[in-house]
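Forwarding the complex inputs:
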Amino acid sequence: MCTHANKVAGLTAPRDVYHGPSWAQRRATICGGVAVVMLGSMLWGVSLCAAQSTQDAPSPDAIGPPTMLSDQITHFVADSVAQTAGQPSWIVERRACEGCPPRSVGKALFQTTVVNVFYGLANLIRGQVTAKVTPKTWWANMEQGWVWDLDDFTVNQIGHPYQGNNYFNTGRANGLSFYESAAVAAFGSSTWEYFGETNHASLNDFINTTLGGIALGEMFHRTAWLVRDTRATGRGRLWSEIGATALDPITGVNRFMRGDSSRVTDKPADMVPSNLAASGAAGVLWRGTQGNDFTADAQAFVEVDAVYGDPDKGHSRTPYDAFAMKLRFGGGSSLSEARVRGRLLGQPLGDGGVQFSVVQSYDFQKNDAYATGSQSFEGAFGFTHNLSSTTRFLMLGWGGLTVLGAIDSLPIGLSEVPVEEETGDAGQGVSEGPRFYDYGPGSDFGVTAIFSRNNRPFATIFYEGRHLFSLDGVRANHFLQRGRVDLALPLRGAFGVGVTGEYFDRRTFYQDPAATRVNYHYPQVRVYLTWGLS
Amino acid sequence: MHTWVRGLCLLALAPAIAFAQAAPQTPPSQPAGGVSRAWFVAGGAFATLRGDCQECEQDFPYRHSGAVMVDGGYRVNARMDVGAEVFWMPIDTSQGNIRTTHLDAVAQFRPWASHGFFLKGGAGMAFVRNWVDTLSPDSFNEKGLSVIIGGGWVVRPTSRLGLQFFATQHAFALGDLQASQGLINDVIGNRWSVGAAVVIR
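Prediction (whole assembly, two chains):
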């Protein structure tokens, strides 16, 4: 049934999972390095933000239309017909506001191509044969069309979305709106797939780069604007711009090149969140086994959680004016969880007690029960109730569609990934497979209840289910479940301690003649120190 | 300044004056209350389809045919329309025939408001009905993931009635597909199409 299984069945020696251990390890190291830099920048950035008070951004309704940047630009262009000599220079420079970048679609598309050339040259310098592109390889790729690729899981689920974030931010850095920049991300992704590598254009890369790039891109763009202190001058200003550039290099470089990095202005109003809550956690976890026994080995982890804006209230048509982000490093994997959920639109229902939102999600999870990554869109209903003047209860339920998800998967009959010796015949950068994870669309749903006191959660109950049907790989339905209970106790100041009990469950229903069914599950306990960053 | 020079200047500026006068009559980016935001496109295309699978050795043929495309949706602003698209293509083969239907959520975006150039992208589901006469009188049906990218030019982009020329590429991932050669795994097909359509806003 499965070509992967056929390949594996012929193995006599241990084989590599993807395309050679040295390259896979090197890529993992690079990803780990990038992740550590990002974490450091974020921790520093968020702590900087803690020192800067968040100002009440006027709600889109308060401002009145236009709420989207594209509409603002349209109005601006209309207004500039009647421009007079006394108008501020920023209007002449095609900026939507004084602190906004000047608008240029052409520059955005050009810089997207520059990003592609940059990645291509970097691959060439690293000796990848896939970077030796010629017009012949371009034509071959166009003749072939889209295929599934065999690349490493982390490269496809983390690396490509990060690259997509660069494309997206060429749009944001040049004054384009969220949705306009989304089109730029798709442009950058498709041109990279066809013209940036000798590999055939990969459908999974295109989706992950575009959708993941949009989610990560807007998250990094807004986080960088938190770090940037545009009213400051001197060394403090320089370092805030450098910190922001670490998070959003494309916008940062554009600002340095244009001289915006030293101009004293207000921040763009839509880059100032109405609220900001962030916390860090560091601790250890103990993972259980299939028999629910706990191992003695504790694994260290560090986690960052942030909530930008007010996801649970407000009429909003501004994408990502509210988002939640979680990153966890360690705990069995260099990056064990990355999650971004950005609100695309929000609408209070009834008397405002219930909030409806449309959300875009980027997910990456790697644990002993499963490794999965996905690009999804969900509808969410939230309900908030004040139990007292300081205690609040929030309940949130969501469900939606997964455009494309990846799930680790073994051919029937194997219990662990075989190790393959690297042959090196195909050259560095060429993935020959077999690939022990599969791709397909699916759905997801979940519910969470959060009790908080003075805006600090002290009890959280969380459940999430995800279904994926593998269209490429071992044909199967995968059903993943995860339940979690967090308890947090405030200590002194911003510090606290927490304990979390988690349970991971995975059921795989293979579509073979015997209808094979496999079940993995394990419990996990985490103990950690927390600190509020805002 | 001489009168004839003034005359020439006026003549040179005439189109600009006319444009400035005509501008208020063009539809605004946000239609006023009561004005429809509906977006409708219907047209035809010439399409080339090629099925393939991830680890097949066969060299699959390119098959050509006509196709029908219909979009319906919502005008978000002057630059962007979103909605759903149906793209249908029947092909006769030596073993029978294949009918593919794509149902996608699409967004069509014009980077420059004053020009008709647009980019298009979307994703949804693909439905394939494959009649293999030598195997069965009934069709073998599969459904899977569909992705579309494309671009084109729309003439009269801001008026109620326009015409668009487009080039698109569809990809559809089906999983398994029964063909005359047997059951093929990890099928992924590509379709390239060029066509024209009427646009109604």
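The longest strand of chain A covers residues 391-408.
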